[in-house]
Amino acid sequence: MTRVRSHDWIRAGLGLLSEEGEHALTLERLCADMRKTRGSFYHHFSDMNAFIGAMLDQWTEDQTHMPIRRADEERDAFARMKRLDRVVAGLDHKLDQIIRAWSIRDPRAKRAIDRVDKLRVSYIALLYGGFGLNGDDAERLAELEYTLFLGAQQKFELMTGVEALRSLRLFREMAIQWIKQRGGELPNELI
After folding, report:
1. pLDDT digit string (tens) for 84-120?
2. Which domain holds residue 87?
3. 99 near 89, Cβ under 8 Å?
């Protein structure tokens, strides 16, 4: 018999959430899908609230912290931005959309969305700061790029789709012109 860990429960919950939405996150449904008892669930989590918190923390790790760590492996802001784009393209964007919709009705999801949005915008602003923009300009540009990203998640089924990439590329071209006007430093690949 395979031993089930808390991580297995969390992954099952994220899968249910991505496939069917937050209404599928019931103890009965989780136990049925995992083929485990309530006792097994309660061995790992004190209650559903603790489980939801752990699940949202894992979503934050997978969809935000991990891509940032991967991007930070690169040497400069431009390379980090390109790596971030590649990593983010492979994420579960449907799950992001579901959690964002859920956040309208659930304060736990709302806190997670607010935290993730802040982390993502701050990181994008840090990247733009690497091009020599001051903090306010980098923050403003990051907010605009992230807003475009959220809109693309809604409009385009696959973030790797041609239309989504075309929109991001157009935004970056406009951002480059804006950075040049402000005297920012751009890598040769962008000029």
Report:
1. 988 988 888 889 999 999 999 999 999 999 999 999 9
2. 55-181
3. no
Residue 111 placed within a domain: yes
Q: What is the 3-state secondary structure (H, E, C) of 48-72?
A: HHHHHHHHHHHHHHHHHHHHHHHHC
What are residue 7's phi and psi, to 5 degrees?
A: -60, -35
Q: By mean pLDDT, which of 100-114, 128-142, 146-160, 177-191 is the weakest?
A: 177-191
CATH of the domain at 140: 1.10.357
The verdict on residue 90 lying in a domain is: yes
Mean pLDDT of all residues belonging to the chain: 88
> Looking at the domain assignment, is residue 46 inside a domain?
no
**Domain total in the chain:** 1
String of DSSP letters for 107-170: HHHHHHHHHHHHHHHHHHHHHHHTTT--HHHHHHHHHHHHHHHHHHHHH-S-TTSHHHHHHHHH
